[in-house]
User: What shape does this take?
Amino acid sequence: MRYGFNNELVRVTKFRTMYTHMADHQGERLTERNDPRVTKIGRVLRRSSIDELPQLFDVLRGDMSLVGPRPHPAKAKAAGRYYQDVVADYAARHRVKPGITGWAQVNGWRGETTTEEQILKRIEHDLFYIKNWSFWFDIKILFLTTFALVTHSNGKAF
Assistant: This one.
């Protein structure tokens, strides 16, 4: 479960990439680089972002959008602190539906959050997106996401 629009918990559909007995559904321990909980096939799915494809059903169901702040696990931490304790305006990102991709992701702020700076930058980009939302901004993010997937880059639009 993850926090979505209006801070409500939503189920985010993904392909299973971890060994079942090692999965952490609340996100107390986020996935790390070379995480032993991830299966060999899971590594390929994650690297190519194919594990996110089932979220299209979440979009059709109305729980998510194509573009928006990525939904975080309920117990996610950065440097041992809950995200909402690190970032004062953390809840502001829940004013919109979470997205499959977002401004933070196309700017390279995806993956591990081992430092407080990483989550601060991610939320900074999420709030920028919310404040500057437009149809064309969404189109730009979708284009940059497609480009990143095709080139296997980690973002860094600007």
The first strand starts at residue 2 and ends at 3. Residues 31 and 112 are 7 Å apart (CA to CA). The helical segments are 40-47, 55-61, 83-86, 103-106, 116-131, 135-151. The two ends are 32 Å apart (CA to CA).
